[in-house]
Amino acid sequence: MSSKDKEEQEDELLAVASIYDEDGFKRAESAQGGEISICVDLPAAFKILVSGDEKNEPLEYSISFLPPLVLNFELLPDYPSTSAPQYTLSCKWLSQSQLSILCSRLDNLWEENHRNVVLFSWMQFLKEETLPFLFIKSPLEIQINNKGRVDSILSINKKKEQDEIQDLKEFPLDQRAVQDVESWAGVLREILDFDQNQQQKTFNRKMFMCNICFCEKLGIDSMYFKECKHVHCKACLKEYFEIQIRDGNVQCLNCPEPKCASVAIPAQVKELVKDELFARYDRLLLQSSLDLMADVMYCPRTSCQSPVMLELGSTMGVCPGCRYAFCARCKMTYHAVSPCKLKAEKLAELQDEYLQVDEAGRKLLEQRYGRRVIEKAMEELHSQEWLEKNSKPCPRCCTAIQKENGCNKMMCTGCKGYFCWLCLTSLSRANPYGHYSDPLSPCFNELFQRIEFEEEDDFLSDEDDEID
């Protein structure tokens, strides 16, 4: 290697390193060479279109970045005075035929710049002229064959220009041209992931005004909502998310801008809040989503509460966790075609619902629970209401006892025990009246307390009349 070649190689490699960051240029350790990742310039509103067989409709995506062309090169000892760099050119979204055309153009550039360094010319050509040189315009179409492999990548509206270069399928393939993704699904994923990552890097370097704290923050300290693109600083959003999650409002993590309906995605929430709060958010979000599904309910057993998927038109649910089979209507053990049996606390709810709904609603309730069950429930509820107003329970056996007249010493018709009507205390069988004669008793001298003596009042009034 001549000293002049060595000096020019070092100068060129240093120039490349000054243009690209560590991700864009990786210099080889054992040889004069390296790897350069070159992103092509895209026009505004550039789109890609994924098309396949006639059965599936094409998918269209708007992007700002495409995965880079990767130039792996090695500078030979007599470069640039005699030999050209040895290289391979790879890409995830160009076919091998298109890469072969680019390799041919790189060779031509070397011939045109013979005995001069050529890497910068190659980089400039690949960055600025790749799309027009291959007659690629928006939308960029990724065509796949029936085997799921990338067949070709071309522009839909460029058939005339395509004839001017050569048929891609007939162009001789160059061994230096490498298409490093085989699956068409892999191509789409690589393009979308790279575009998102590059947009995030661009966002991180810009300054934005937070409309919550009204401070200017770098993009790396900010976050934008995917739908509306409104930007707020992470500190404000973190506090906002934490308050909403603690209050259980996991469906209300909207953009703080007035009248904006954009919602934060789970990945954004996870980035800002602690693991404990995110676990609560994830659980409540799943629960709220299941609550909106008509064919999903929870296992009635309080020790389980697992979500249960109901079959269409069936009233039986089988919990996948505890295997409990229950009725979807009354939450009791499954009873096939028999009417639902209501618990005591459900009777009042059924009565209110039955009285409030219209005729169609009543028929639906009668169909669900049975007319006789509803009539019986209504009768029992009326009886219950009457007993609560006109009777008291025996302190021993809880039998409902009605008091019509007489003193406050009562005898239960069920257990035959004595009790006080005023304080519901059980009385001694041997001396039931001792409760009213004991000065320490709360009912002392109240054996006849709160008793209306209507007949006596009438008798006294008659005597008064006679005296007059």
From TrEMBL:
GO terms for cellular component: cytoplasm; nucleus. InterPro entries: E3_UB_ligase_RBR, IBR_dom, Rcat_RBR_RNF14, RNF14_RING-HC_Zfn, RWD_dom, TRIAD_supradom, UBQ-conjugating_enzyme/RWD, Znf_RING. It catalyses: [E2 ubiquitin-conjugating enzyme]-S-ubiquitinyl-L-cysteine + [acceptor protein]-L-lysine = [E2 ubiquitin-conjugating enzyme]-L-cysteine + [acceptor protein]-N(6)-ubiquitinyl-L-lysine. Its main location: cytoplasm. GO terms for biological process: protein ubiquitination; regulation of canonical Wnt signaling pathway. Residues 206-447, 210-255 form the RING-type domain. Pathway: Protein modification; protein ubiquitination. Keywords: Cytoplasm, Metal-binding, Nucleus, Repeat, Transcription, Transcription regulation, Transferase, Ubl conjugation pathway, Zinc, Zinc-finger. It is found in: Cytoplasm; Nucleus. Pfam families: IBR, Rcat_RNF216, RWD. Residues 11-133 form the RWD domain. One of its GO terms (molecular function) is ubiquitin protein ligase activity. PROSITE patterns: RWD, TRIAD, ZF_RING_2. Its EC number is 2.3.2.31. Belongs to the RBR family. RNF14 subfamily. This is E3 ubiquitin-protein ligase RNF14.
